[in-house]
Each structure stands twice: as structure tokens, then as C-alpha cells.
Amino acid sequence: MTSAVEAPLPLRPLGRSGVDVPALGVGTNRWGRGRGADQLVPVFSAALDAGANLFDTAEVYLGSERTIGACLRRDPRPALVVTKFAPYPTRLSARSFHRALEGSLARLGRDSVDLYLVHFPWSVVGIPSLMDRLAGAAQVGKARAVGVSNFSARQMRVAAERLDRHGVPLAANEVQFSVFHRDPERNGVLAACRELDVALIAYRPLAGGRNRSDGSALDRTLAGIARARKRTVAQVALNWLLGKDERIVAIPGATRVEHARENAGAAGWALTDDELSALESSSA
Ligand SMILES: NC(=O)c1ccc[n+]([C@@H]2O[C@H](COP(=O)([O-])OP(=O)(O)OC[C@H]3O[C@@H](n4cnc5c(N)ncnc54)[C@H](OP(=O)(O)O)[C@@H]3O)[C@@H](O)[C@H]2O)c1
């Protein structure tokens, strides 16, 4: 099995924001839930060693922002942080938005985040007002780039148009995407990312850790390719995703050092055309 990184992880742009991130980061929605910094600093450091220095968190991932904050203090090498605002129905005012951002920054121990996302589109205040607030965060330097998560293609266009009025680009839409779950190819989100020049941050890129064969055609194909290429199933699944489009950034969740290392080894090589078509047909 190949788990080391052969080449530095390629960087990918977050749309037109001017912020570049590694093609592979680390999802941290289970960081902090019963796991403290003592357990997770080694995972954080292993990701940095491998060049996967992008960490996806959110105010609603209980304990995750605080744990990332502790990791940032204990391993002060450069790291990029994505966090998210949850537009709950009780959060109507601009003040509640700014309070939430300040809370995230305090937990992270930072003056700014690299990417601040609106976590989901369902909100009482509406997408245009949410975008006005995101643009404000970018303009005062508290977010280097701003974006959305779980937005449809139509909602992305509304968001991009409103941010544009402030001269702020929509940098990313974070949605579920993997070889196991190909909705963004069918529902227009990937096409909208191409059209609007927006990064697609793929969450649950391993479908929640599905790296064993359950006998499906897709699992058999993944296992066969992994065996032939001396890779792991997770690496093949992530490589397929990164190969779909240069706007895609994957954030596999990992709470184990060996997973953080292994996942970084998913970049820097390419599946052959035959392997790609086998995956296309078995995952269609
Ligand atoms: N924006 C949103 O609405 C949203 C929604 C869901 C998730 N997310 C983000 O996306 C991230 C990723 O999603 P996810 O964590 O739910 O699912 P995932 O990345 O598809 O799977 C994570 C699971 O896979 C395991 N794993 C990681 N690398 C592996 C490897 N190389 N081989 C075998 N198993 C491996 C992990 O185990 P260990 O923990 O034991 O390492 C964990 O159990 C989250 O952490 C979160 O940051 C965002």
C-alpha cells in the first residue's frame, strides 16, 4: 500500500478569491467530541507534514473549533481554516452574524478565517441578506474568502450575484460529492461551479468511511483498482474525485494519523482512462 506522499499536494484556487488551498484537506466534524487536543494534535501535525494543511470546521461541530484552536497553538506551522455560520431562524440580525463570527474566531484563536461559509441555504433572512453580511466579513478582513454550503445551482447564482455587488467573489460551495454520491454532476452544482468559477469543496468524500467491499459493483471495481495500483480504496475514491475537475477540493474526515497520511497520498498520480471508465460505469 502506498501511504506516503510522493509529491507535494497540488494547490487549487478558491474561485477568484486569490486564496489557494491544497486539493486535499481534513474534515473535523468529529474533532472534540470525546477526543481532545492530545489525541488530535498528532493527526493535525501528520496532515501538515503531508501538505494537507486545510481544516474544515464549523461552529456547530461541537468542540471542533476549540480543538483546532488548540492544535494551531501547539503546532504553529501555517494552516488554513474553513468555518461556517449556521443561519438558524433565531439569528435574524446582522449583529447575530457578527457575534457568531467573533465566537468562531475566539474559539480558533485567530483574527481571521481563510474561508467563511454560510452552512445551509434555509434561512428566514434570505440569501441576499446573508451575502451582504458575508461580504462585510470579507471587507473588514475577518474572512479571506467567503462562500456557501449545501446550496443548489440556483441558490449559488443568487449568492454570487449579490456578493458581486459588493465586489466580493463567491469562492466556494461545499456539498456532498464522492464516487459513491454523484449528485453534483446531475443537479447542476458542478456545472454552476465551472460557469461561475467557484471551488467545489467535496464533503463526505469517502461516504463516511466506506472503504470495505460490500459486494456492490462499485466496491469491487474500487478494490480491484486499489489492488492493481498498490493504493487503498480510499485513495482511489479520492483520486477519482480530484480528477473530475480542477475546482474540486476534498475534505475527508480523519481522526487517525494513518488516515490523514493515507488520504494525502490520494493526489499526485492519475487513474488511467480504462480505470476511469470502469469507475464511471460501476458508479453510474
Ligand atoms: N458542509 C456540510 O454540511 C458538511 C456535512 C457533512 C460533513 N462535512 C465536512 O466534511 C468532512 C468529511 O465528511 P465525513 O467526515 O462525514 O465523511 P468522510 O470523510 O466521507 O468519512 C470520514 C470517515 O472515514 C474514515 N476514514 C478517513 N480516511 C480513511 C481512510 N483512508 N481509510 C478508511 N477510512 C477512512 C474516518 O475514520 P477516522 O475518523 O477513524 O480517521 C471517518 O470515519 C467532515 O468532517 C466535515 O468537516 C460538511
* Coarse shape: globular
- Our Rg estimate from Cα atoms comes to 18 Å
Bound molecules: NADP nicotinamide-adenine-dinucleotide phosphate
Helix-strand pattern: EEEHEHEHEHEHEHHEHHEHH
Strand order of the largest sheet: 3-4-5-6-7-8-9-10
Strand content: 5-15%
Helix content: 40-55%
Oligomeric description of these chains? single chain
Largest sheet: 8 strands, parallel
Number of contiguous helices: 11
Mean pLDDT: 95
**How many beta-strand segments?**
10
Given helix and strand content, the structural type is alpha/beta
What is the CA-CA span between the terminal residues?
Answer: 27 Å
pLDDT < 50 stretches: 1-5
Output the keywords.
284 residues, eight-stranded parallel beta sheet, two-stranded antiparallel ribbon, globular, disordered N terminus, binds NADP nicotinamide-adenine-dinucleotide phosphate
Describe the structure in your own words.
The chain contains 11 helices and 10 strands. By secondary structure, it is of the alpha/beta class. Helix 1 (37-49) crosses helix 2, helix 4 crosses helix 5 and helix 8 (217-229) crosses helix 9. The longest helix is centred in the middle third of the chain and has 15 residues, at 94-108. The structure holds NADP nicotinamide-adenine-dinucleotide phosphate. Residues 27-29, 56, 149-150, 174, 203-209, 211, 232, 234, 251-256, 259, 262-263 line the site of NADP nicotinamide-adenine-dinucleotide phosphate.
Summarize the structure.
The protein is of the alpha/beta class. The chain is built from 11 helices and 10 strands.
